């Protein structure tokens, strides 16, 4: 039997009056991201435009928390990722700190063996030097190009199907005031009005984390670091913090969403398995049934966790149980 190392989460959260993902400011109007969405009405498919939060926005928050968790476990994080600038090792300049200034290069007449060796050296150096790039992947676009696929995948957050038509976008009027006493700048308006489009919906998103791929080469499958278990723990803890703090999305300073996580399902499997999308109302039952089928067909281990069932009252209960199971399994 293999080891439980693939984590999949389905999350539903209620967010009232949020500005988690703004796409453009035109004059004094800041617009919320919206996407086309297929729903069925009266038995017929129909496209509606709904508020959405991009996967990129969620991934950014996750990687910021990953940098923090990694550092708290004394794991390496490069200076760009530490600063929350996820340019990654995209070129020689950004990769150089992982190699003490000397990124491996191909010679003029490089043969296939040398190409394989240099690609492996570059990937290994970057993975060793930065946990965020180990888990979140990178694209080194030089000669030779080196690509590492992200070990986590996250969907857009979209309104759940059964209530998509109730999801709303409304502009809110705000005002910035100029000073009314003391010195006043000539020509300054007393106040400036602006509008922020705010969304309200029950959103759903899916998050997958392939713990088996952390600290392991994309090319050879070889283990590249000694502290694999600790790196995996940092990756799960970052996800825990992200959900527990609700610290994702933009404009939180004045548009912190009013609401919270209303459902959460998690699975731990040996091989990749994705929970049923939480946009569907039966996602928990469907996930459990699918998981039972996979277990029976492949003879593999699998664990299922659901908020609201078996003593898991809060999202933290579920995530703590996931970490506990991974510790017992020896994965982290
Ligand atoms: Zn980095």
Describe this structure in words.
The chain is α+β, with helices and mostly antiparallel strands. It has nine helices and 13 strands. The strands form three sheets. Strands 1, 2, 3, 8, 9, 10, 11, 12 and 13 form a nine-stranded mixed sheet that branches. The protein has a two-stranded antiparallel ribbon with strand order 4-5. A two-stranded antiparallel ribbon has the order 6-7. A hairpin with a 2-residue loop joins strand 4 (34-41) and strand 5 (44-51). 38% of the residues are buried. Residues 78, 80-81, 88, 130, 132-133 line the site of zinc ion.
Secondary structure tally: strands? 13
Distinct ligands, ions and cofactors found in the model? zinc ion
Using the alpha-carbon principal axes, give the shape: globular
Sketch the topology as an H/E string, one letter per element.
EEEEEHHHHHEEEEEEHHEHEH
Class per helix and strand makeup: alpha+beta
Radius of gyration: 23 Å
**β-sheet strand percentage:** 25-35%
Give the biggest beta sheet: 9 strands, mixed
Low-confidence stretches: none
Mean pLDDT: 95
Proportion of helical residues: 25-40%
Q: Which key features would you list for this structure?
A:
single chain, two-stranded antiparallel sheet, alpha+beta, binds zinc ion, globular, 332 residues, 9-stranded mixed beta sheet
